[in-house]
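Box 3.1 A note on notation
Throughout this textbook, protein chains are presented in two layers. The first layer is the amino acid sequence; the second is a token string describing backbone geometry. Keep the layers aligned when reading.
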Amino acid sequence: MLVAKEKLEEAISEAVNGAKPRKFLETVELAVNLRNVDMRKPENRIDAIVTLPHGVGKPRKVGVFARGDTALKAKDVADAVFSPEDIDELAKNKRQAKKIANQIDFFIAEATLMPEIGKKLGPVLGPRGKIPQPIPPLSDPTPVIERLKRSVKIRTRDKLTFHAPIGTKDMDVEKLAENALEILKVVENKYENATNSVKSVYVKTTMGPAVKVI
């Protein structure tokens, strides 16, 4: 284990208690700085969706590309549902496509629509790490949507640092620590010698000072 849960709890408490009161609910963030990892090699980069055991404090926004029954079922739980016709419309209106891509945290799509989405919306969604997760045609998207609403995406690209929200300032410290451990597991599973690959770990609130964990 990279970090003991108790050590994370201490750092999170310090970060939360040391942050000045704000007029909005601050997010608590985890920052991981890597070392001894060649990010020029794609296989060394982290690109993962992590479902947090206690959610993010604020549900993530999920968009669905679907038709028929899948679209109908998605309307009750998703933040936005797009039909095959919407794909064409968004492809013509890049400004609107970018706006939606920035507003929605995760996308899912019926597998049969993926080639069309990749061709027409790939240039907008790809660089943002928002290419949809495929789901089987005619399937119920509810379980996938509910899981994604409790998830965060971590992505290093070519950088040795990544940040991830682990919850909100009003959440229980123990739950925030358990969320952080779930993200650190990805690092542990990714690199053979995780201790040697991690330079430092910090926690902070949105506008508060960073507190070093390790």
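The mean pLDDT is 95. The chain is about 40% helix and 25% strand.
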